[in-house]
Amino acid sequence: MTSSLPPNSSLGPSSRSDLHCPLLQTMISHTLNNDTRVNLAVVSVHGVVSALGILENGLVLWVLGCRLRHKTVAAVWVLNLALSDFLTTLTLPLFTHYLLKDHSWNLGGPLCVAQASIFFINMFVSAFLLAVISLDRCLLVTKPVWTQNHRTVSAAWKICGLGWALAAVNTIPYFMFRSVVLKQDGRKLCYHDFALYSSQSTLHTDCKVRQGVTAVSKVLLAFVVPLVVIAVSYVCFVLELRARRRRLESRRQGVSNGKQRSSKFFRSLYSPGGQKSTQLSQGFTKMVVSVIATFILCWLPYHVFCLLEVMAQYKTEIADLVEVSLPIATTFTFLNSVLNPIIYTFSCPNFCTRIHQSLGVLFEGLVEEVGPLVLVTGRMRKKDLSSSTSLSSPTPSRVPRIQRDSQGSINLLSFKSRPTNEIEMTKCNFIM
């Protein structure tokens, strides 16, 4: 796609001419739908979504970043997801202003480039983090000893930093080719200008190659590849849980009388407290699955129409469909940033009875972590907690150390001390 800019613009060679890619030329010649009621409804929806998105994600950032007493790996994942969504929702008022001004971008080129860059960074970061969270869940179950030694908050921050860096690199093409285009009816369009840095002789090839590469790459890197990682991770996750359940049942059935004491202790890790913690772990897994499902539903239409946009270069009859449907699909992607905080919050059990409680405690329970294999109940009465531990003089508690043998079975090796002030009262228990 191309841009028609003032003669003194220095964005690139084609910015001094009227070169346009065919699809953008079609968009330049089209006029606005004058149905005022429809346009007003769209603007109103965007305004509400903008306000909700900024408030929700800002609240999540404040709670996880400032009010959380102890950062966990889970907190790092959710914090970075919320940061990505918050940046996106900050650009929603710009898009709402564009709709309010009869679909005309009157905010200038820099804000056009900034809005598009943040949109695509969020797209890549969200997909990357959801894939990482799914892989993290898988490793917690399939490689418990390895995760116990290597799964740290600092490592999680490094992985998130890598995700942001990769997203920034993948956003460079959209940063370079974003421009403000003047339409025939006088309105301005903020869109991809793939004729920039091109010439008359190479325009046709440049338009096809640039548009095709960017569309296919973002579909692969921001949708298909992450979904493959997510699917494989959860298949391994489920298979390992089933295998572990079979091993546990086999151990229960084959235990001898001489080992009944140790087997009772082993079983006590799973029942009844273990069963409760397993349910809590399943609760967090359901939250992650809900976020992933929301991501798919919100981004799938956008990626489909991006591919159709490439096909419109060869089948001009679908160009009108793309021009009308792609903005609607883009609106659905913004909903993802608004729905995620709602999913985080309502994943807490008994939310309605706890909404009056401290939000810090609420979210701390959401991202609380316990050992991946020793499943303990995270709930303690406040009076029990205060009587058994003191922040000024912590006393050690005995925590079992666990290792797998060569056949993958679980062995209880020993107990090591851990200050009991690491144990916190849980309001919303999820094991991650």
Notes on the protein architecture:
The chain has 432 residues and is mostly helical. The chain has a domain at 13-260 and 331-342: Rhodopsin 7-helix transmembrane proteins (Rhopdopsin 7-helix transmembrane proteins, Up-down Bundle), CATH 1.20.1070.10. It is 65% helix and 7% strand. The strands form 2 sheets. Strands 1-2 form a two-stranded antiparallel ribbon. Strands 3-4 form a two-stranded antiparallel sheet. Strand 3 (396-404) and strand 4 form a beta hairpin. The longest helix has 52 residues, at 203-254. The radius of gyration is 26 Å and the shape is elongated. 34% of the residues are buried. Residues 1-17, 263-280, 371-402 and 404-432 have low confidence and may be disordered.
Task: Compile the SSE list and pairings.
Blueprint: H1 22-29, H2 36-67, H3 73-100, H4 109-142, H5 144-150, H6 153-176, E1 178-182, E2 188-192, H7 203-254, H8 260-268, H9 273-311, H10 319-346, H11 351-354, H12 359-366, H13 382-388, E3 396-404, E4 410-419
Antiparallel strand pairs: 1-2, 3-4
Helix pairs in contact: 2-3, 2-10, 2-12, 3-4, 3-6, 3-10, 4-5, 4-6, 4-7, 4-9, 7-9, 9-10
Membrane topology: Multi-pass membrane protein
Transmembrane segments: 40-64, 76-96, 116-135, 155-177, 219-241, 284-302
Domain G-protein coupled receptors family 1 profile: 56-344
